[in-house]
Amino acid sequence: MLRRETQFEIQNLAGPRLLKVITASELIEKGTAVCAGHATFDDLALWLEAHELRDHPGLAALPVGAFLCPDQDSPDLPKAVLQLRAPKDPQVVRPGDVIALTPTSNLVRVLYRRGANSNLLFITDRCNSLCLMCSQPPKDVDDRWHIEENLRLIDLMDAGEENLGISGGEPTLYREGLLEILAKCKAVLPEKSTHLLSNGRLLKDPSWIAALKHLNHSRLSWGVPLYADNASDHDHVVQAPGAFSETMQGLYNLARANQVVEIRVVLNRLTTPRLPELAHFVFRNLPFARHVALMGIESTGLAKKHYEELWIDPLDYQEQLSQATYFLHNRGVPVSIYNLPLCALPAHLSCFARQSISDWKNLFIDACQSCAASSLCAGFFKSHTDRWQSRGIRPLSTEEFTRYARSAS
Ligand code: SF4
């Protein structure tokens, strides 16, 4: 499990910086073209291993924005240059990453990780809902600075086909900034599929239709949560009266704007009893949905506070999960099961299970060490604790793994 931040010894940092980490050979081969968008040498942090600096001391004179020395025994650099040395965890920052520095801290945050499946543009901590199981409780702050940071981050990413997420909070709260970011993604990162998570409520405003049609981003998709086939249940889960109606209007506006839409359902004690009815509702009322994601709960944030109301062992909703999954699948609606361990699912559902948990927050517990299926399994969120553990968790044998793998292929 890779962490996203670690401490460095930092010298000569005058203000906040975003930097693209680049090796000397990449610098020689590609220069600033290693970045997808506009960049100068000042945006680059040169990755210099101790032996490179000893063998080629002239590298320290290159006009880059910073030098990053990953080894503990690196030779000294010129005193005035911005330098990052001696990382506490040397695995966290790698060449190709984009890192953020702030003068008040020696913490270096990785905002973009080369080749990862979990790169994200985080738009805001604010939200207009307060979902009972929110993994990242909203904050009432003005954090529009994320817009500028993300616009810069897009420039410094690698070009290429990795998926990119956009999330919050609720990204549509900063409508103009979000549209600017989407336009920049389309222009600078045209090969990346971009998946935007939104509760869809503000999209009820029909002016989004023209804005999204004008944007015309062919690799953009939307993930919108729907927790029930009726307003009172959905509104209770999201703790916002009127939210169901707004989200439905928003979903129809996305369809009018020819957007690709995924419906997301977090599985818990409140949403699973009527999961088959919700699957019917989606099929009948949202025929444009391209994918339905049925997602195990992340046991962090507000979910911990609402444990009693939310927790249900996946073994106890297997029937509803099977009915909903096959109802959609048999009618041609692509459906996936996210975030649930294979051993908590019947073998016949394993073909729908995905390894959906981002690498940096994915955990395999002791029981998984002797399990033959760990290479196929989603495992757990790193926030996992015993009280959120299914009584079905157990290492699968090679014979069982073969059965699960056969079902999955
Ligand atoms: S024991 Fe095996 S199937 Fe169960 S969670 Fe661990 S890796 Fe997955």
Overview of the structural elements:
This protein is an alpha/beta fold and 409 residues long. It folds into 2 domains: 5-112, Glucose Oxidase, domain 1, CATH 3.50.30; 120-338, Aldolase class I (TIM Barrel, Alpha-Beta Barrel), CATH 3.20.20. The protein has 12 helices and 17 strands. It has helices spanning 24-30, 50-55, 145-156, 175-188, 207-215, 231-238, 243-256, 275-285, 302-305, 307-310, 318-330, 398-408; strands spanning 5-7, 9-11, 17-23, 44-47, 66-69, 83-85, 98-101, 107-112, 120-122, 164-167, 194-197, 220-225, 260-267, 291-296, 335-338, 362-363, 380-381. Helix 5 (207-215) links the parallel strand 11 and strand 12 (220-225). Iron/sulfur cluster is lined by residues 341-343, 364, 367-368, 371, 373-374, 377, 379, 393, 395-396.
